[in-house]
Every structure is written in structure tokens, then in C-alpha cells.
Amino acid sequence: MADGIFLALAVLTIGSAIAALEMRSLIYGSIALMGSLGGVAGFFFLLDAPFVALFQLAVYVGSIAVLILFTVMLVRRELIFRKVEDKRRRMAGIGLLLVFMVAVGAVVVSSGIHDMSTDSPPVDYRDIGADFLIYYWPALVVMALILSGAVTGALVLARREDGPD
Amino acid sequence: MSVIAPNFRLSGFIRSILDNVFWIIVLVTLAGIPAIQIVLFYIEMPVIDGELLTPFLALTWLADPSRVLPIVKALMATDLFRIAVFPGFGLAALLAAGTIFVERKMLAKLQLRVGPFYCGKFEGILQLAGDGLKLISKEIIIPAKADKPIFWLAPVAFVGTAAAFVSLIPVAPGGWVVADVELGILAVFAVIGFFPIITILSAWSANSKFPFIGGIRALHQMISFEIPLILSLLGVVMLAGTLNLTGIVESQDSFPWIVFLPVGAVVFFICILAELERIPFDLPEAESEIVAGWLTEFSGMMYGLVQLGTYLKLYAFAAIFTVMFLAGWHGPMIVPPFPAEIITDGIQLGPVTATIPGLPLFDQEMLNGTIWFIIKTVAVIFFILLPRGVFPRIRIDMLLSLGWYKLIGLSFINIFIALGLLYAGVLGPGGMI
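The joint structure predicted for all components is written out below.
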């Protein structure tokens, strides 16, 4: 069951990633990118990390993909791109990709990852939260400062220049 | 009064119905029942109570009144029932349909108009059915240069996303929820994030300027109000100590969170209005400026689907408000307990005593919870509808400044109130109350 879902998710993720690069229409490309990011969220679900998966859906599919979509819609593609593709470039690209994939695969196979199995239960997000508050609190404070700085910056940007009359 | 069918005669109508009934009976007896029996002959039937379940026995059981209630009960325990009927789509669609009618009638009364009046004998009560028939029978027109796949897909995806949202809502105690996700409120945020995508895609795919302007407005509005919406719920999550929606409702058994977090409730309510594109935030479909906004090019049942999705979304947001701030299904017990002597002795009608197995169909807690949940949700829906009769539309710069500048600040104040209550030891896990 899990193997089947894994295969389907792998096909979805890699297929829509390829489609996102290869589609002629930029809109369809960004929809395919959404599919790819959603597939990654599915992997997180399979890995018993629903917390990360739901944030992947909310942030990447829900916000970042929208940002890309919005930018793409306001841009006229034919004005900025010139088609430079020819057969040799295409073959070179495919060859480079194959070499890279084979290299990564060789590294993975020769490492100890491929026969690693564990029966330990998945890490609860509550434990991660507790660790953050107790042991890693400086990192949490730094993150909080960055985030509140970002929100304050957003508030400053949203302020009207002319002011209330 | 206009007449749809000038040659209509009631006797002819009744005769045609009787004709249909006659032919149905003839066809079922001659072809239907034999076909069922033949098919059942080849299916291996289970043995129940030491008896082989023959087709005859199965039909007898189905027709046996003493077995109807257990069968209904078994049906109610299935996932399909939950998805399609009770806590899921059926209840939501029923409430959505009621909302559409009440909205039109109530707005009319607020503005001293009559509203729907002619459809049906009483106060236009059949107006909704008439509108539905019209939408179904209307031609679907697609703009010539539209991007057809996305344009077709957008209304379906909209309804699907709204239904996914509805499925996360716990309605009654005892697990009456379609999907009891452990991280329920995060799942809500993830589902809400899909609405802007569908809106902007459908607006772009229509290849027309009014939908595109409306779609961009909708995108701005939804994205900027998602942030205070999420922040305003964090206070409740902190105090309840869980992300599960059922857990959040159970944490409010003595008081609803709106008592302690009124700021968060107000912020969340305003964000609901903006996310639902309701007046005074209906800039995406500003009918006096950009025709109908991102809905302009939809026609026929595609428009009907988008409307259905919009009202499902309205119900879902109102229900989330009820769950987060108004204590969900909690309320005084108003449903009388099921009389025990009916279960033990049966119903006595003169000389006849009827014992009905399978009673009671619903337990008291669940009925009471459902009634309170629906009362509260309907009240919230009423308050969502009310501004439409009162307020004018606001400008987009006022909208964005409200969202980014005021509501985010207020929701941070709400978070600090919640943190104060938590660290003072008043509320929350391990608190005094």
C-alpha cells in the first residue's frame, strides 16, 4: 500500500517538475510546479510528519505558488525570452542530467542509506516544540526577532504615505 | 401572469404520471426482479445466524420493519454517510441553500422591498428551486479565447475545496466529523490557501478584462487577510493546548473562548467577511464597477457550482467561528432523554404492543450537540449576512490598510492577552479554571 502511494507520489512529483520546466505556457508550468510541491507534501505525509506536510501545503502551494502565478500572469513571456533551444543543447542537457542522477544514485547506493530500517516511532511535533523552548531557545529567539522584523516591515510598507486627511 | 405551458391541463399531467407508474411496475416485475434474482444466484451469499442468506431471505429482511432501524443504523456508521449526508456535504448544502433564501428575503425586508414573492404559494419559498432549475437548464457559454481546461476545472475545484473545508468541521460529540485530523486547524489553513489559486486561475483563464481585474483584487484581498486570520486563531490554540478541532471544542466545556478573547473573535470575524468577499469587502465582485468581477464569464451550472462553493465556504467559516470561539456543540441539555420504557416494553397502542429494535437512533448528547451547533452557526451566518444590508463597499486601499495595518496589530494584541492569561496560570493546560 505505502509502496504504491510512494510510487504514485514519485511519478507525480518528478513528472510535474519536468512539466514545470518543459511546458510552453508559463501558467501551466506554474500549475505543474504546484503539483510538484503538493507531491512533496505527500512525501511528508508518508514519512509521518503531517505538521511539515500541512505547512508545505499552506506555505508553498498556498502562498509561494500563488506569488509565482501572479508574477507570471503580469509578464508577457514573448517579450523577454528568445528561443535558443536546438538539438545539441537538448542532448547536452539530457546527458548532463543523466550523469548527475547516476552520480547521486551511486552515492546513495554506496552509502548506508539504502538498507536503513527503523522501528522507532516518528518524532512528535510536541517534542520538537519542547526542545525549541528548552534547549534551542536562542535559535527560537532569533527566529522570532526575524519574523517580527518582517511583520513590522510589512506594516511599515502598508502604511499610507499621504496619511489621513 | 405569464404562463410557461399554455396548453397545460392537470388531468393530462396526472394521466402521464399514472402512465409512467404503470410502465415502471410492468418493467420491474417482468425484467427487474428476475434480473436481480439471476444476479444474486451467482453471488456467494454469507451465512448469518446459521442461515444461508438467500435472496428471498434478504428481501424479507429488507422489508421487515423490525430490521429497518438496525440497517439504517449500520448505514449511518459508514464513512459514505458521514461524507455525503450528516456532518458533511448534505448538512452543509442544506444550510447553504437556506442561507441563500434567507439572505434574499432578509435583505429585502431590511430595505423595505418584498424580495422573492411569486415562486411557490407562500412568500416565494420555491424561488431557490426555480433558480436551480434555471441554472441547470441554461446554456453554458465559454468565451472564445478562454483557456478551456482551466476554465472548466475551476468551478469544480472550487466546490471540491469548499467541501474539503466542510469535512474538517466537528458537528456533534461522539466523533461526528468526517475527517478528524489531529492537526485540524493547520489543515484548515492549508485548505483556505487553495481558494486564491482557484480564483486567480479561473479569472485568468476566462481571458476577459473584468474577471482578471476581479481576480487580482480577490487575490490581494484573500492573501492579505489570511495573515490576521491565522494569527487571530493562535490565541485559542495556545489556551486550548491542542490543534485538533474536536479537542478545541472539548476544551470549552465550561465557557467559550470569546469570553476571554473578544479581540481575536472580532478580528477573525472581519477576516471571515473579507475571505468570503462579502459586503463591505466585496471588491472582487463589485457589480457597479467591474460587472461581476471574477464571476463575469461563468454561466449556467458553472455559475451555480461557484455559488454553491461560495455558500459552502460561508457555512464552513461560520462553523469554524462556532468551533473556535463559541464552544461548538456545548450548551444546556434541551433534548429530553429517550423514554426508557419504549426500549424495554415497547409502544403500547391499545391491545397491540410494538417493540422496535434499534431504538434510540441517535443518543441524547449527539442530538443536543447538533442542535446547539446549528443554532450557533446559523446565528454567525446571520451576522455575516447582516452587513450586506447596511454598509457600502470600501475602497481597495482602505481594505489593504485595514488588513495589514490594523487587524494584524489587533491580532498580536490578542496573542498577548492569551499569553498573559496562560502565564498568569488562569487558563490553558494546567490553569485555574
